[in-house]
């Protein structure tokens, strides 16, 4: 994370009308969210003090308050506990996956088209993610939003508002501190409508659209890309060799 200071600079992309925060401030909030929602590897864990300092320097706002609550927890945890918690809540739970098109399209052909359209949106803005993640991975979407500005840059976030709400609810249900990061993000977006709330409740109860019967939820065409952590299959039962006793020896004579 040697480039942390560079990545936290205010984005200089095209801007539309500012939101509740000044444009540079809004871009910084989105960049912090993008970093903090990434897998907490050793490099990110080593920069926790710098991230906490950046959050502490933010002007007061709802988003800044949620970020401060998260970084207080984040800075206090052993690095290995951060990694295991992240895998548990984001890789092993469908309702809190960070791949946004899953919530809108499920495991259907339309999801592939949505991923392609999102990648084309990035290219049209002169930006490409080079970290190997799918274009709908939330940290990637947040980085684009910080660079491209509130109108075009945040359009993918607004489009997937209902999925973001579901992730927030799922993280809240398991009492994960990452719920604060989703709460911070949602505070930057337009308020949910009654139709949004109804759709989120339905999504939580029924799941996203389904098309591919029998699809492995962790295969390359599921909501997580190849290489995502997959629990190992249970080992087959161990067969014990037969016990040889005196009677068996007699029978073989």
TrEMBL record:
EC number: 1.7.99.4
Chain residue ranges for the region called Disordered: 1-23, 214-253
Keyword Coiled coil attached: no
Keyword Oxidoreductase recorded: yes
Pfam families according to UniProt: Nitrate_red_del (PF02613)
Protein's UniProt name: Nitrate reductase-like protein NarX
MF terms (GO), sorted A to Z: oxidoreductase activity
Gene label: narX5
Keywords: Nitrate assimilation, Oxidoreductase
Comp. bias regions, Pro residues: 228-244
Compositionally biased intervals (Basic residues): 1-17
SUPFAM superfamilies in the record: TorD-like (SSF89155)
InterPro entries: DMSO/NO3_reduct_chaperone (IPR020945), NO3_reductase_chaperone_NarJ (IPR003765), TorD-like_sf (IPR036411)
């Amino acid at each position: 994370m040697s480039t942390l200071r560079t990545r936290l600079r205010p984005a200089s992309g095209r801007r539309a009308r500012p939101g509740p925060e000044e444009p540079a401030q809004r871009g910084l909030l989105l960049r912090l969210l993008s970093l903090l929602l990434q897998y907490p590897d050793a490099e990110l864990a080593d920069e926790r003090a710098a991230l906490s300092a950046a959050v502490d320097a933010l002007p007061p706002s709802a988003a800044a308050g949620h970020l401060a609550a998260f970084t207080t927890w984040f800075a206090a945890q052993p690095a290995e506990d951060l990694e295991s918690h992240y895998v548990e809540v984001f890789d092993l739970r469908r309702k809190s996956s960070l791949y946004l098109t899953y919530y809108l399209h499920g495991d259907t052909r339309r999801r592939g088209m949505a991923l392609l359209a999102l990648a084309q949106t990035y290219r049209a803005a002169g930006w490409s993610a080079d970290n190997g993640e799918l274009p709908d991975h939330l940290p990637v979407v947040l980085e684009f939003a910080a660079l491209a500005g509130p109108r075009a840059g945040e359009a993918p976030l607004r489009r997937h508002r209902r999925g973001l709400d579901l992730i927030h609810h799922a993280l809240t249900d398991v009492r994960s501190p990452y719920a604060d990061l989703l709460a911070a993000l949602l505070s930057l977006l337009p308020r949910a409508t009654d139709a949004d709330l109804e759709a989120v409740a339905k999504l939580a109860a029924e799941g996203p659209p389904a098309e591919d019967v029998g699809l492995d939820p962790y295969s390359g065409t599921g909501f997580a890309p190849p290489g995502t952590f997959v629990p190992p299959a249970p080992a087959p039962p161990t067969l014990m060799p037969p016990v040889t006793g005196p009677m068996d020896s007699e029978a073989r004579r």
